[in-house]
Request: fold
Amino acid sequence: MNIALAVSLAAIWSKVWPFLVAILFFGLIIFIHEFGHFIFAKAFGVKVNEFALGMGPTLLKKQGKETLYALHLFPIGGYCAMEGEDESSEDARAFCNKKLWQRIIIVAAGATFNIILGILICTCLVGTEKYVGTPEILQFHESAVSNAEGGLQAGDRILKIDGKHVFSDEDISFLMLRNNTGVYDMTVRRGEETVHLPNVHFAVRTGGNFSYDKTNVISDLSAKMKRAGLKNGDVILKVNGETVTDNESLSKAIQKDDDRVIDYTVRRGEETLTVEKVKMATVTVFDFILLGKEKNVGNVLGGGVKYALSMSRMVYLSLFDLLRGHYGLNELAGPIGTVSVIADMAQESVKSADLTGLFSIMALITINIGLFNLLPIPALDGGRLFFMLIELVARRPVPAKYENWIHAAGMVLLLIFMAVVSASDLWKWISGVGFY
Reply:
């Protein structure tokens, strides 16, 4: 083989394989969800007409004894089509003719299988660590400020942050990241007492906006920084009019700006220009080390469940923050964005020879899909369960035509929402900026 051709193929493969891994992972999550519906439908004697993965043109299909198995081109969903699922049927094996409790289990099984998969992955991740993490403070860093008078102490077990319960060590970082003021309301177990600490202060620094090398060349800009006017490759010359010659002086100049709104003077090619009033993000400085315990079967299993519980709470708190306007469209990811995130993580995992991040993302996504599907939204499993609960209470079903209208309207809205998010994913991928 021509050496140049071999090099070209290797370069193409290096770009392609992370997306193949992402599609495989995403497909597995979808398969687990649909398999949950499928296996309980079969267990209760429901006739399954088709079991499919993906959407769009059919790549492969095989007719079983009564079920058509199919694989479609676009890995963005799947379905388990049951007889009498969306319409009346005279078939005794139709979904609509099964007992209510059986229908509830079949519909809930998909999301439940996703959540179980998430728990299994979380348990494996906990088991690969040297120690099982706890929310108990072991010690503080030398520069710590959270252990000042009236603050935290070594040996404190953190129970709540800003009123939210702490189930595992993973909760601490997430709950503290939600509040970028550096001041937290905490409740701890101190010895035999429960102590409320209303104003625990942490240092706050500017960060998470961009990266720069030793010569102050910018890379990995956030979308907000790009919209402000900066670009990858810009060389930072001044911060608020103060000349910076290396990354140490640059870091000091950024950190000493109290209001986090900075004017940057940069060199772009042959041009020198100033980008004014760039709003910087802030991060809290975690100034303590948490206690880790020796592993055993009990705390690994318990740690896996707690880790999954933390991820579950992260999902619904993030949804709540989204509804409150704390996140914009750029922070949402549809199938395209999700595949891109998994692909990036796959590359990083190979570079670092550490698959923890990749499987953590997979656990978060499968738990997210499971919980989202349980929301009482028309066209989702949760919407169908909602109507079944009405039937359980009222002892009679909602007329099928009305339920179908509501699910159809919900499906249209979901498709519109998915189209907008996917367009945003594409634009972020192309431009690196996104809509807003």
Notes: The two ends are 48 Å apart (CA to CA). The chain has three domains: 16-129+310-436, 131-203+285-294, 205-280. The chain has a mean pLDDT of 84. The CA atoms of residues 119 and 308 lie 5 Å apart.
